[in-house]
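re: the backbone from monday

yeah here it is again, tokenized this time
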């Protein structure tokens, strides 16, 4: 097959993905017009106060930009084989199980942290030194769990400072409490390669606008607490093994009965996508 023909095939494929993404974007804009926070004349802060919905600090109206991102989930065995060529000691401190795009590693010498407040710093030091591509992961406080019942340190890959909130790009360190110390039992890792923007950067809806949308759509119950809101890339589409991510506002809500729910708002369209499934495209 000639080079020109290969180049033409790639151009058509890229064009098809972009047209598909544009259709999704336009459809989501139309859907969101059903309930629009702009139609509300009372400031969102006042509406939250009237319903006794609490939050710390202020709701940000900072305008940011983001991308449609493409990346390919790495086969962890292949990634290990590639990196080990230049690092013969890689993963030599324990037993590793590879399962497609995921690995689980258990150290032979226990990784022990004496104090709970040192867990994050000690974990960061460990993964930057011992984990494959460890310097590409950043600790995510909001996605981690540091309770008496469960300790799970979560780090993710990021793009231009915005983390990827998806199982395809995570490093998770699990700890158990033993004799008043914290012992790492294992860690799991996934990784995506070739993070690439599919289009030019686009303006995003703000945190305040996302909260207003959740309120207008009855996703914030009276007397609840907005624990945190975080901008992160979330998976919306898989095209022939390539993942496509968009920026979204992830919002943690604690209800009056102490139960919790996570809400997800598309930061491009300001549309709620909490229960949206990942679309898969095999042919285009």
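seq for it, each position gets an aa:
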């Amino acid at each position: 097959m000639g080079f020109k023909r290969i180049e033409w095939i790639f151009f058509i494929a890229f064009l098809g993905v972009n047209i598909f993404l544009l259709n999704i974007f336009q459809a989501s804009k139309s859907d969101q017009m059903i309930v629009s926070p702009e139609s509300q004349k009372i400031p969102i802060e006042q509406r939250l106060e009237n319903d006794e919905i609490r939050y710390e600090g202020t709701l940000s109206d900072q305008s940011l930009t983001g991308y449609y991102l493409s990346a390919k989930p790495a086969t962890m065995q292949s990634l290990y084989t590639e990196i080990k060529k230049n690092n013969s000691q890689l993963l030599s401190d324990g037993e590793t199980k590879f399962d497609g795009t995921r690995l689980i590693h258990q150290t032979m010498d226990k990784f022990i942290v004496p104090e709970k407040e040192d867990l994050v710093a000690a974990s960061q030091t460990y993964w930057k030194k011992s984990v494959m591509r460890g310097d590409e992961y950043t600790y995510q406080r909001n996605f981690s769990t540091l309770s008496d019942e469960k300790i799970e340190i979560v780090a993710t890959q990021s793009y231009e400072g915005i983390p990827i909130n998806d199982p395809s790009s995570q490093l998770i360190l699990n700890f158990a409490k033993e004799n008043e110390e914290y012992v790492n039992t294992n860690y799991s890792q996934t990784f995506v390669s070739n993070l690439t923007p599919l289009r030019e950067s686009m303006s995003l809806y703000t945190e305040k606008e996302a909260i207003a949308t959740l309120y207008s759509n009855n996703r914030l119950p009276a007397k609840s607490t907005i624990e945190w809101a975080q901008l992160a890339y979330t998976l919306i589409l898989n095209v022939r093994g390539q993942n496509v991510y968009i920026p979204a506002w992830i919002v943690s809500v604690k209800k009056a009965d102490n139960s919790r729910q996570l809400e997800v708002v598309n930061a491009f369209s300001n549309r709620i996508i909490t229960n949206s499934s990942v679309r898969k495209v095999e042919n285009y």
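The chain has two domains: 3-68+198-281, 74-194. Residues 3-32 form the longest helix (30 residues).
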